[in-house]
């Protein structure tokens, strides 16, 4: 990628980027949707009792609205190293550069998408199944429900509607 390094966040990166950010823009990526389609065996679950984390899953006609972050100049290498340690811990995510749309025009952003051929991929779970798993799973970074609630709250603060996440957050609160 030429020019500044942009990173597209659609889940925990929105509220915990973990790198120096000098600019944020609401951004949309087409052809992908935010989905609890990845079993978490490290951060929000264990191999014995996996949780679920968000991933971008390819889908015709879909869109996902999130945040594009411009990384501080000079911090690109450290940011890439940190993101790869965090996001590629089990190889379920693929690192891609996707074209995202912002109010000030399109840009290319580093993005982590799900590998649908990976053993942690679990697309197609019903909303009820997702709620059941998220309500009970706990991993190295804490309860799965906290991940869901924080993501849903930050999306709401940004004015980004996600009816599925809103329903899941309410349903998991009801169950816990």
CATH architecture: Roll
The overall average pLDDT, rounded, is: 96
CATH topology: Hypothetical upf0131 protein ytfp
> What gyration radius follows from the Cα positions, in whole Å?
15 Å
**Largest sheet, described in full?**
5 strands, antiparallel
> In CATH's first tier, which class applies?
Alpha Beta
What's the end-to-end separation, in Å?
Answer: 44 Å
Helix percentage: 25-40%
Summed up, the domain count is 1
**Unreliable residue runs:** none
In terms of quaternary structure, the protein is: single chain
Choose one word for the global shape.
Answer: globular
Strand order of the largest sheet: 1-3-2-4-5
DSSP strand content: 35-45%
Got a strand count? 7
Q: Helical region count? A: 5
SSE sequence, one letter per element:
EHEEHEEHEEHH
Which secondary-structure class do the elements indicate?
A: alpha+beta
**CATH homologous superfamily classification:** Gamma-glutamyl cyclotransferase-like
């Amino acid at each position: 990628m030429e020019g500044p390094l942009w990173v597209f966040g659609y889940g925990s990166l929105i509220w915990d980027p973990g790198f120096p950010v000098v600019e944020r823009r609401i951004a949309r990526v087409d052809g992908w949707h935010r989905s609890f389609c990845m079993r978490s065996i490290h951060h929000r679950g264990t191999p014995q009792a996996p949780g679920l984390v968000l991933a971008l899953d390819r889908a015709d006609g879909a869109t996902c609205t999130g945040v594009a972050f411009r990384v501080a100049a000079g911090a690109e290498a450290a940011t890439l190293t940190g993101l790869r340690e965090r996001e590629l811990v089990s190889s379920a995510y693929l690192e891609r550069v996707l074209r995202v749309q912002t109010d000030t025009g399109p840009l290319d952003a580093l993005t982590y998408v799900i590998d649908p051929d990976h053993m942690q991929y679990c697309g197609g779970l019903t909303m009820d199944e997702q709620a059941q798993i998220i309500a009970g799973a706990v991993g190295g970074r804490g309860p799965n429900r906290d991940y869901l609630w924080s993501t849903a709250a930050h999306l709401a603060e940004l004015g980004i509607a996600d009816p599925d996440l809103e329903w899941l957050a309410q349903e998991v609160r009801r169950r816990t």
